[in-house]
């Protein structure tokens, strides 16, 4: 039995199963591309920020565009003058937004993993109802094609539902674990920066974008990063 024969044998219930299969595939591919640890929370960024703080060369605009973790750290640094607790609170708020973004589409994927076996079970019930309806008529021996069709629908829809549900459930659990691992990595590096700021002896100096860079011909953050230089330093009030 090829794919087309299976779709026909399964009846109309194969349509939602096929739709769930396509949606799950798209979600899995998108999350595999998005949930890359080196893109969200690259190793060493917290230590690099500490070194830049020591030299007074933290460019917040570069840090925000570096990675989601960079955006979290930049949010904390912008509130460093308000005190240690405010830095922690702002880091937590920014990290919550990043975690929410990482968990995007995981709920639909979990829903697909849960409902597709039920759709397959519904196909099994519908198929068996058709089989018993043929038997009850008393001429089941002469209607073997109808009997075979009902049994085929019962088996095909069940198999299709499990085929979609099993990989969906596996990837759902995998993505949940990956989100947890990336969250722990973000917490570790954010903790390094918070600890460093708590014991930083001098006045925090942050590099800001120069006003001339916003005009035509100005040098933006990308060029500054490529040249290895930092924008002019301005002390926070």
TrEMBL record:
It is a multi-pass membrane protein. Residues 67-187 form the MotA/TolQ/ExbB proton channel domain. This is MotA/TolQ/ExbB proton channel family protein. InterPro entries: ExbB/TolQ_transport (IPR050790), MotA_ExbB_proton_chnl (IPR002898). PANTHER family: MOTA_TOLQ_EXBB PROTON CHANNEL DOMAIN-CONTAINING PROTEIN, PROTEIN TOLQ. Residues 209-230 have a biased composition (Basic and acidic residues). Residues 209-237 are annotated as: Disordered. It comes from Halomonas gemina. Keywords: Cell membrane, Membrane, Protein transport, Transmembrane, Transmembrane helix, Transport. It comes from the Bacteria. Belongs to the exbB/tolQ family. It is found in: Cell membrane; Membrane. Signal peptide: none annotated. Pfam families: MotA_ExbB.
């Amino acid at each position: 039995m090829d794919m087309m024969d299976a779709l026909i044998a399964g009846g109309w219930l194969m349509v939602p199963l096929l739709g769930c299969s396509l949606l799950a595939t798209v979600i899995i591919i998108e999350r595999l591309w998005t949930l890359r640890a080196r893109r969200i929370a690259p190793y060493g960024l917290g230590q690099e920020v500490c070194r830049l703080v020591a030299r007074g060369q933290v460019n917040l605009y570069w840090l925000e565009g570096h990675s989601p973790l960079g955006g979290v750290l930049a949010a904390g640094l912008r509130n460093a003058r308000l005190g240690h607790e405010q830095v922690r609170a702002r880091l937590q708020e920014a990290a919550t937004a990043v975690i929410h973004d990482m968990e995007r589409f995981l709920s639909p994927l979990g829903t697909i993993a849960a409902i597709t076996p039920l759709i397959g079970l519904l196909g099994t019930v519908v198929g068996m109802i058709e089989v018993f309806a043929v038997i009850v008529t008393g001429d089941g021996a002469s209607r073997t094609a109808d009997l075979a069709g009902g049994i085929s629908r019962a088996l095909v829809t069940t198999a299709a539902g499990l085929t979609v549900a099993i990989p969906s459930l596996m990837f759902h659990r995998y993505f949940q674990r990956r989100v947890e691992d990336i969250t722990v990595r973000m917490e570790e590096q954010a903790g390094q920066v918070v600890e460093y700021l708590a014991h930083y002896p001098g006045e925090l100096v942050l590099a800001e974008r120069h006003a001339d860079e916003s005009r035509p011909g100005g040098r933006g953050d990308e060029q500054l990063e490529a040249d290895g230089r930092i924008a002019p330093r301005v002390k926070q009030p």
